[in-house]
Design a protein that fits this description.
The chain is mainly α. The protein has one domain. About 80% of the residues lie in helices and about 0% in strands. The protein has four helices and no strands. The chain has helices at about 1-10, 10-20, 25-35, 35-45. Helix 1 crosses helix 2 (about 10-20) and helix 2 runs parallel beside helix 4 (about 35-45). The radius of gyration is 9 Å and the shape is globular. The protein starts with a helix and ends with a helix. It comes from Autumnicola patrickiae.
Length: about 50
């Protein structure tokens, strides 16, 4: 449940908590800077539904 909330509010934090520092986090930061919605979508895709 916390991951879902973070995926919506702070996508890079959610990706970092699940995968640590790596390419997924960097991609998510770039997408979030470009636009919040692409960052949210990427966070949901990367983190899955578990």
């Amino acid at each position: 449940m916390l991951t879902i909330i973070l995926n919506i509010l702070l996508p890079p934090v959610a990706v970092y908590m699940k995968h640590g520092f790596g390419s997924a986090l960097l991609i998510n930061i770039i997408l979030t800077i470009i636009g919040w919605i692409p960052g949210v979508i990427h966070a949901f895709i990367v983190n899955g539904t578990d």
